[in-house]
Amino acid sequence: MSFPPSVSPIDDVQRVLVVTAHPDDVDFGSGGTIATWTKAGIEVAYVIATSGDAGGFDESTPRDSIAGIREAEQRAAAAVVGVTDVTFLGYPDGALYVTNELRRDIARQIRRVRPDRVLTTSPVRDWARTPAAHGDHVRIGEATFDAVYPDARNPFAHPTLLRDEGLQPWTVREMWFSGTPTADHAVDITDVFEQKISALREHVSQLPGELDAMRTRIEQWNGANAAKAGLPEGRLAELYSVISTA
């Protein structure tokens, strides 16, 4: 299974909602893209399904403190790229499933933020890239699509959202998926690459060892993306599949 060729992105975006499974997902996959959007005056909000409580590498850190540490790291990283609206849904890390409750919770945030565009991770596994094929990543992509269509726009879906919370239905016009096997829409992040790296450096609990080596790996990865997209030598890019959901 693969995505169809990307549509041309809409050009009148005012608000974007990013939905991921874990703290740091957005910074690895889309940190540069987010920085370009906020620099252009687009409002961006994050919804993160888990607090990353199964993450970390330091065994001396009490496990019951990891969630709070990772939430703080993600808020700091978000601020680096111009994002202040960060919501954690509190689902268990490593045990994220597409449930009616998860769909409802994402639909709630869509109706609250009222985004023109939603960015999430691929619901299709890329077997060539193990990190992108993490089950939580795949399932949050699927749940987010369900929340975009039909849940958020349907006044009769999750009726408590409208009846008890006053959240009016909202139609998202476009979705961007990172980590798809056939990603073909490039965002040139060369000019904001250092901002992306600065955001990633906030995730101290997840980055053992030499941070400069991490920077080199990310630069190589984004350079390969740019070359795949046909950008000039020396440019860096993040890749997506883009679909219309209007």
From TrEMBL:
SUPFAM superfamilies the UniProt entry points to: LmbE-like
InterPro entries the record matches: GlcNAc_PI_deacetylase-related, LmbE-like_dom_sf
Gene3D superfamilies registered for this protein in UniProt: LmbE-like
Source species, domain of life: Bacteria
Pfam families associated with the record: PIG-L
Keyword set, alphabetical order: Zinc
The protein's name in its UniProt record: PIG-L family deacetylase
Organism this protein belongs to: Cryptosporangium japonicum
Organism ancestry: Bacteria, Bacillati, Actinomycetota, Actinomycetes, Cryptosporangiales
